[in-house]
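Task card 7
Instruction: Convert sequence to structure tokens.
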Amino acid sequence: MIFPRKKIWLPLAAALILILSSASLASPAENSKTPENSVADSMAADAKIAAALHQISPEHIRGNIEKLVSFGTRATISAQDASAIASGRGVGAAREWIKSEFERYSKDCSGCLEVKTDTFTEPAAERIPQPTQITNVYAILKGSDPENAKRMVLVTGHYDSRNSDTFNVKDDAPGANDDGSGTAVSLECARVLSKLKFPATIIFLTVAGEEQGLNGSLHFAKNGEGTRLEYRSGFE
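Output:
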């Protein structure tokens, strides 16, 4: 596998700029600040963005993608029992590794991240031969401002993968681009941004069940951290 440095770094840099800008936006009450204060705040935000960009590690991102590929297949319907997790193969093993990475980042920032899982059972469907447990893994960086913390910025990627045959869980489904790279963005953003404080809340989300029909994203949008009311009209 080849991961050109610029191809890894540039999309993540753009993502970080968007995240930082969104999470740092002023609340309506703050819009009444004087022009001088607004300029000062803008300059401070720009400095924060520049500092965060310098913390991005293409090597770290590549390592995360290669680690995700090493699980062989991350198919949602692959084995996720204790023996499969211990063997280091399958979606369950990938899930536990992602959770451990979020927990490690949280430890590095003295518990600033709240690491959580969102587990549900998806009934049998066209791409799911039998009722299957699906788990979203995420970390929450709470906003520093009580009012702005109600506003949430989501950084998402899906950690499940598939090969040409949706039901084939024996052969490898490396999924480096689809969507190991997206999961790596969530992880790297969590690692870098957890060192900073923002008025708004940021959720670093990795979902599963996407290759089966956007199951993880849909469940989180309807039932996740404060997102139910915001997204309900979009799905129902």
